[in-house]
Amino acid sequence: MSAQPRELSHPTRDEIRLESVLHALSDPTRLHIARTIDQFGAAVTCSDIEVEVTKSTSTHHYRVLREAGVIRQTYQGTAKLNGLRRDDLDTRFPGLMTAILGVEDGE
Amino acid sequence: MSAQPRELSHPTRDEIRLESVLHALSDPTRLHIARTIDQFGAAVTCSDIEVEVTKSTSTHHYRVLREAGVIRQTYQGTAKLNGLRRDDLDTRFPGLMTAILGVEDGE
To answer: Which CDD domains does this one have (chains A, B) (predicted)?
Structure first.
């Protein structure tokens, strides 16, 4: 008997709020995470993305991104995969992610 | 002899940081202020814009917008005028303000 897969809560597409997305991406570490996932073009584990913060701070940042609707976190076995909700975001806020993610780091 | 005009500090165009702009606009009241100024299409006084917060909170919000480079605040006599730095923002982050300001309130 396999264990019940854990499911993390996510806002539906219609529940995603602009203010929450802007807040989530207003932090340099979270912006870096979102950009890196976007560049991978696929769901990645947290360890695929280098961040200069503690593990617990990193976990917090991923949760903020998930709760804002920017990323989708799913379990694959014991690994947590992180994918950008690009389709949902592009539908809700056309042009927003292109404008935000297209800007070079440090600009 | 006229009094020296007071000047408020603003970031230069190149000093405007994406994270600061996103943070400034991640608050519903500040987003409302920016949208309203954009709709006026000209610099407006704070009293032209209805906000449901106290005067001191309102002043704080305008300061955050100014320090992030979203608005320019200038004195005209004793009145403080607020203008959106649309040209600067569009140059620095193409498409960003269109994407953010184009989204309807409450979406």
So the answer is: HTH_ARSR
Mark yes or no for CB contact B20/A28 under 8 Å: no
CA-to-CA distance for A65 and B97, rounded, in angstroms? Answer: 21
Nearest to A98 among B17, B18, B95 (CB): B95
The reply to whether B3 falls in a domain is no
- B3-40 b/e with 16+ CB inside 10 Å = b? eeeeeeebbeeeebbbbbbbbbbbbebbbbbbbbbbee
Query: What is the number of structural domains in chain A?
Result: 1
Q: Does B5 reside within a domain?
A: no
Question: What is the value of pTM for the model shown?
Answer: 0.89
pLDDT per residue of chain B (107 residues) written in tens, 0 to 9: 455 567 899 999 999 999 999 999 999 999 999 999 999 888 898 888 888 888 889 999 999 999 999 999 999 888 889 999 999 999 999 999 999 998 665 44
Q: Which of residues 7-46 of B touch A (CB under 8 A)?
A: 17-20, 22-23, 25-28, 31
ipTM of the complex: 0.88
A vs B, Cβ pairs < 8 A, gives 66
